[in-house]
């Protein structure tokens, strides 16, 4: 990013602010560091995190660079309905995790990763498929947070974008490296308090300094008819609907969310997710209104990059002292998710790659696991810094990764409820969904050919039914879920037929849901398998406890997919 005018803060000021912020978080991390570090605590804090820290950590993790910058971009592109679509649906997706999360903890109370549970349910191929998707997603998430930090620092100081990215990356790595998830969760609590200050104090100051409420009257001429319509169909189809599909996939497939699900005390799951739902919605919609204000003011994003809207509004309307505070609050917000991504990546490599696929027959050494986890953090940080140099659009990355994970949603959820789902069904359904998703997403399918357009619209209708059916199933049970899914498909088919394939992002997401569901059901319904879910508790447990008793866990005594499928069948 090029410099745009005189910097507001000096290099020395920004460096001191970053040292103070990351120094404080490092101090907290070192205070909770154990003399003899524990691999299980490093990944999930012993499955006993309390309500306050758990709710704050869930909120802070869900509020990442995209939540702040992309919500403002949505407001700038679609008017006042943009942040509502972004914040409301994102908040509701946190709530939708709750019923599925309760089931996951019921069958795997001491798990570390969702992929680890998939191994216990199916075998190593399903585990590595889910783990691999999370590695891609978390690296992309890490990259977007570094991009946001670099852009922010470059706008407010003489430091350039690359220097800003490196500063944020080094700071996050520094304090997360020592205590893993425990450091991430505890510092999240501090960062949520800072975000409350942003929404409750700083944003109202910006609004009134920018001429609120008169600006909404005088600036209405800057809006198109769609931007001025609160019930804009364009806003729903371009922003709301793709985001519903994307964040549902994030909720189910994202290890940063699963890690908090496994960490919180089981009796506090409902309270934690409800609180995080409210906190996320309020904060994200509040920040998104900066984009709406920028639209009414006729503000043009610096360098034409909408990711600059939030810092640009702050730079324009805040005094220098508050700009310094604003900088640290936003850095804290994006750091809270970056440290979660590092913790998630380290857990995946520790538990799924080393702990269950490299270590011989369940003899994973917790000390080696810790070493592997910390090396993973270093490698992931370096990789994300390199990719951050591409300065990709944050909102596009969010929707892309979320849609990519859409291929996993039905197979993962079905695997926790339906005894007939097999490993071949899981793997084949996910790969088939990806094989269809990618051509649709990147316009490789000639939509001017009738057969392709009709096929995509049919899958779109099925995808709508799958999403709504899963939501209804989570809260109201199987029968209501089935009725909702079928009814939604039948009702939406004539409504979407002939035009929805033109909305590439939304179509790609819906197609991923539809194909994975169709293939998974088709391959499972006649499988003859009847999995005993009690086996998961036997196969998934604490790595450190295994060392103390010198007994390998049942989860790792089964060395390949065939063993798992033998165990899962023949129990009709």
TrEMBL record:
Membrane topology: Multi-pass membrane protein
Keyword Heme part of the UniProt annotation: no
Region annotation (Disordered) ranges: 543-572
Subcellular localization, as worded in the UniProt entry: Membrane
CC annotations in GO: plasma membrane
InterPro entries per record: Na/Glc_symporter_sf, Na/solute_symporter, Sodium:Solute_Symporter
Tree of life domain: Bacteria
GO molecular function term, any single one: spermidine transmembrane transporter activity
Keywords: Membrane, Transmembrane, Transmembrane helix, Transport
This protein's record includes keyword Transmembrane: yes
Spans traversing the lipid bilayer: 6-30, 51-72, 84-101, 128-155, 161-180, 192-210, 230-252, 273-297, 317-338, 371-392, 398-418, 425-444, 450-476, 483-500, 506-525
Protein family membership: Belongs to the sodium:solute symporter (SSF) (TC 2.A.21) family.
Protein name: Sodium:solute symporter family protein
Organism: Nesterenkonia sedimenti
